[in-house]
From TrEMBL:
Pfam families: zf-UBP. GO terms for molecular function: zinc ion binding. It comes from the Bacteria. This is UBP-type domain-containing protein. The lineage of its organism: Bacteria, Bacillati, Actinomycetota, Actinomycetes, Mycobacteriales. PROSITE patterns: ZF_UBP. Residues 7-109 form the UBP-type domain. It comes from Rhodococcus wratislaviensis NBRC 100605.
Length: 124
């Protein structure tokens, strides 16, 4: 159920100041040795998980287990957030939440990292 641009997601109050737990990729895929297609940042705790387009769908599983509903794309050039509870994109400009997100953007990894897809660029 995709909502209109003027819809106010009731889960926005779950967004916190977050720092990405890792800059190496999907936490679940790294632990299992599986690959990912797209990375998402949990805006409640900083968990980095793979999207629904990835085989393991760790971002969604994290949202279901933890009750943390909103993620932000970590793919370079993306500027969107998603609410798993409402299966809706949160359109920009984002409503003011007071939260600060610290997450590096994505860059293609070296050839030996291709089995994992893209990885997050290391922070300076």
């Amino acid at each position: 159920m995709t909502q209109s641009n003027n819809w106010h997601d009731p889960d926005l109050n779950m967004i916190r100041d977050v720092v990405a737990h890792t800059s190496d990729g999907c936490e679940g895929c790294l632990a299992l040795g599986t690959r990912w297609e797209h990375l998402m940042l949990c805006l409640t705790c900083g968990y980095v998980g793979c999207s629904d387009g990835s085989p393991m769908r760790h971002a969604r599983h994290h949202a279901e287990r933890s009750g943390h509903p909103i993620v932000q794309s970590l793919h370079a050039g993306d500027n969107w957030r998603w609410c798993f509870v409402h299966d809706a994109q949160i359109c920009t400009p984002y409503p003011a939440t007071g939260a600060r997100v610290v997450a590096p953007s994505l860059v293609p990894g070296p050839s030996d990292d291709l089995r994992h897809g893209l990885r997050i660029a290391k922070s300076q």
